[in-house]
């Protein structure tokens, strides 16, 4: 088996220590090439790997909203005490007729899911993942 070195000396005139910048028959390096190579040496945290984006999409799509605590019709009544608005009266009438708040909480969680998913941008999700890994 033959091993071949890929040092610049075997690919053209000059050596790694003394590269030839302009030789007849070899096109000079353009500024575009130096820009491209500069992009390749950026720190890893500047380059967003497609797998991280897939993870962020997965997390966002599988987000669940839940309310914690023991909310009851009586507690809603206390929280709305003194509110004589039409919305408060209508809500209390509906909760009193249903005799529980579970349906309201399920519907709210379902309705809030899409706006919450939209508000969780890639940058915010990436920042939170970074904070998790650094903790």
Offer a few descriptive terms.
single chain; 135 residues; mainly alpha; 7 helices; elongated
Structure write-up:
This protein has 135 residues and is mainly alpha-helical. Among the domains are: 48-63 and 120-135, no CATH class; 66-115, no CATH class. Helices cover 57% and strands 0% of the residues. The protein has 7 helices and no strands. It has helices at residues 8-11, 31-40, 50-61, 73-79, 86-98, 102-119, 122-134. The protein starts with 7 loop residues before the first helix and ends with a helix.
Give a summary of the structure in a few sentences.
With 135 residues, this protein is mainly α.
Helices and strands, with pairings:
Layout (H helix, E strand, L loop, with lengths): L7 H4 L19 H10 L9 H12 L11 H7 L6 H13 L3 H18 L2 H13 L1
N/C terminus separation? 49 Å
Q: Describe the global form.
A: elongated
Structural class of the helix and strand makeup?
A: mainly alpha
Helix content: 55-70%
**Secondary-structure element string:** HHHHHHH
Radius of gyration (CA) equals 31 Å
Largest sheet properties: none
How many helices? The count is 7
Low-confidence region ranges: 1-12, 25-43
In round numbers, the mean pLDDT is 76
Proportion of strand residues = under 5%
Quantity of strands, as a count: 0
């Amino acid at each position: 088996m033959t091993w071949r070195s890929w040092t610049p000396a075997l690919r053209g005139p000059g050596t790694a220590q003394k590269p030839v910048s302009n030789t007849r028959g070899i096109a000079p390096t353009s500024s575009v090439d130096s820009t491209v190579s500069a992009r390749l040496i950026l720190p890893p945290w500047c380059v967003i790997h497609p797998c991280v984006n897939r993870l962020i999409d997965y997390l966002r799509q599988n987000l669940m909203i839940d309310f914690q605590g023991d909310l009851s019709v009586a507690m809603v009544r206390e929280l709305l005490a003194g509110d004589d608005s039409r919305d408060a009266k209508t809500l209390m009438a509906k909760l009193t007729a249903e005799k529980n708040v579970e349906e309201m909480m399920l519907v709210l969680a379902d309705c809030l899911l899409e706006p919450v998913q939209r508000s969780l941008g890639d940058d915010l999700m990436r920042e939170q993942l970074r904070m998790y890994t650094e903790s």
